[in-house]
Amino acid sequence: MNQFLNVTQSLLEGFGVTCLLFVLTLVFSIPLGLLISFLTMSKIKPIKYIFKVIVWIVRGVPLMLQLFIVFYLPGMLSETGLNPFGQLDNFLYFEYGIDNGGRFIATLIAFSLNYACYFSEIFRGGIESIPKGQTEAGKVLGMTKGQIFFKVILMQVVKRIIPPMSNEIITLVKDTALARVIGVIEIIKVADMFAANALIWPLFYSGVFYLIFVGVLTLLFGFIEKKLSYYKV
Amino acid sequence: MAYLQLTNIHKSFGNTQVLKGVDVSLEKGEVLSIIGSSGSGKTTLLRCINFLENADKGSMVLDGETLFDCSSEIKDSDAQIREKTLNFGLVFQSFNLFPQYTVFKNITLAPTLLIDHDAKVLSAELKKKQAEHKAKLKKEGVRDKKQVAVLLAQQRLTDKDIREEIEYFKTRRKKEIADDGEQLLAKIGLVEKRNSYPCELSGGQQQRVAIARALAIKPKVLCFDEPTSALDPELTGEVLKVIRSLKDEGRTMIIVTHEMGFAKHVSDKILFMSDGVVEEEGDPVQLIENPRSEKLKAFLSNVSEKEEM
Ligand SMILES: Nc1ncnc2c1ncn2[C@@H]1O[C@H](COP(=O)(O)OP(=O)(O)O)[C@@H](O)[C@H]1O
Ligand SMILES: [Mg+2]
Prior knowledge:
heterodimer; A: mainly alpha; MetI-like fold; 81% helix; B: alpha/beta; 6-stranded mixed sheet; 4-stranded antiparallel sheet; 10 helices; 48% helix; globular; binds adenosine-5'-diphosphate; binds magnesium ion
């Protein structure tokens, strides 16, 4: 029993890191994704194509590889050859007592960029699927471009993209496990450390945390969908 | 010059010339119907009038004000175009109501969004008056700060007065817009649908809301692009009835329609477009009963055949 409580507590600590990574990734990737979606729809051709290529690369390369690139490349390019994220690790540890802070930030950067690109395609699809008549109705009524987007288009887009977004967000929950490859101690890494000491069941047990988290998200998205069911787009 | 005067409007999309020199003139309170077969450029003409397309050539004057003149070098800013757009209302064939808003909000949204802009204009005006008054007091040699404040207050021009004035303006506008909204609902006979969403309405009801929404910005000219074409035949009547009531109020309107009977009764004049030009134009009864051009004759017989089917 004591062992179970110990394991649970350790896993919860790892799960805290998982959740923090999940939440912060969403906080950064959603606005960035919206910005990228606008850029890929830009009337200025070079901008449009540059960002389409970026989206293609980011979506085309495994996220794990992107983690390695974000984590190692700056150090390889720097004159001193020191990994800035490693230095940040040390700095955050000695100044604030935070473990693995630099690695966490590297992970957050890679995740935010990666998910921003996925989200941008969902946003673009959503925005382009709204009939042109909606924008035209706004124009004829003297609305500004900003008013048309925020007052007319946005809520219709939100309604349309909830199903693909919820898919992507649930994938993100599980993708956070990749962070361990550059040494972030998230829940699976914690469980793995028990396994290294011949205690295997915490690995299986960690799955329960994911299941509960994804269950809560599923309920949340269902609730939002229901909330928005009063209108059709 | 007529109240609304379009002169020599040209419009091409790529290599296809859609409008090849169209003239339209309309007096205040008149109703003009535009008829013509599909592809003749009727929608494009309405879109040019409503600033959804830029004409390549030609000009438009409304009530003495030139709204566009393609021969001029000066290009209007987005804000100027928005201001000009407000002179016209457009009712679309496919309604284009905002699905996420109630009927009432659909009607009141656009005027409500204009409040902030109008408040800014008013605020700038008052600030200017304030600055002028301050300059005047300075010239008269009033130096004492307290005295300046007292004299400004007498003119209701202190910063606080201006803030209050703006607040008052906003509150008053909101009330006016709400009152207008209720009146428009009554006019289209949908008071009981005030809080319904577009998806809960029939096509005819949706189009009536679209008409109210267009009226809410108080346009000088209201345009309709085949307002009943997307409706089941039994629903066209209610929409045409609303349009007829607008005619009785003396509104200036341009109606693109395939409803010949309606056009004949409601219009002051009819314009027949064919292949990007005005082929024939004149008194409704004359034009429909005694068409002169072969094209109009062919068009009318085609329409009546369809109606008989
Ligand atoms: N945005 C556009 N791009 C290219 N061609 C267009 C566009 N809009 C209209 N057209 C063409 O212009 C012609 C006239 O169209 P329209 O004004 O819609 O006619 P109507 O309303 O009389 O049926 C059609 O041949 C149509 O294909
Ligand atoms: Mg048309």
